[in-house]
Design a protein that fits this description.
With 185 residues, the chain is mainly α. Helices cover 75% and strands 0% of the residues. Helix 1 (9-43) packs antiparallel against helix 2 (48-71) and helix 1 (9-43) packs antiparallel against helix 3 (101-134). The protein is elongated, with a radius of gyration of 19 Å.
Length: 185
């Protein structure tokens, strides 16, 4: 194994702050989506069959990203003998066949994957801190590898969400309210 790089405490805190910032931004976006879905459902009752599930998923993500943001401020962990590398992924075969449900569910599922990636990233950072504090260099190396893998997974999932956003917007804009009402039943 190559020699372990010493990570300066300030850099570590900067990384944790970035995770907290991203989680906060994702939380704020989820809240905005939930509020918009509720408003659209009230203004155009015929969209309620889609607006309701979107609001529920966005509300759930709001809670989950709030947890991730809180985790980013946690102290070092002493369970650094355990390793968590996020393996969360969307099973495309489990998505609904019909549009726009397929697009909405795919986007929501990817948001859940991102939440898992970020929670694993924060946990690995805290375990790294714990291993360094305990002087366990092997565990610190293992946790540093997990941090890198989880950061890469979170970045890839964020890119996937960015790639899916235009399709989600198109599905919402282009689907006539009558189609939304009958296709979700």
């Amino acid at each position: 194994m190559p020699p372990r790089k010493k990570v300066q405490p300030q850099k570590k805190q900067t990384l944790k702050q970035k995770v907290a910032t991203v989680a906060g931004e994702a939380r704020d976006r989820a809240a905005a989506v939930a509020a918009a879905a509720v408003a659209v459902g009230k203004i155009q009752p015929q969209t309620a069959p889609v607006a309701g599930p979107v609001a529920v998923v966005a509300g759930t993500l709001f809670v989950l990203f709030t947890v991730v943001q809180k985790l980013a401020g946690d102290p070092p962990r002493d369970d650094f003998d355990q390793v968590w590398v996020s393996g969360a992924a969307v099973d495309e075969s489990a998505l609904p066949d019909e549009e726009p449900q397929r697009t909405v569910v795919r986007f929501a599922a990817q948001q859940t994957v991102l939440m898992d990636n970020m929670t694993a990233l924060v946990t690995s950072l805290e375990r790294y801190d714990g291993a360094v504090d305990a002087g366990d260099h092997d565990a610190a190396d293992t946790q540093a590898d997990a941090v890198q893998q989880n950061a890469d997974a979170a970045a890839a999932t964020q890119q996937t969400l960015q790639d899916l956003a235009p399709g989600l917007n198109d599905a919402w804009r282009d689907t006539p309210p009558k189609t939304l009402r009958t296709s979700i039943r």
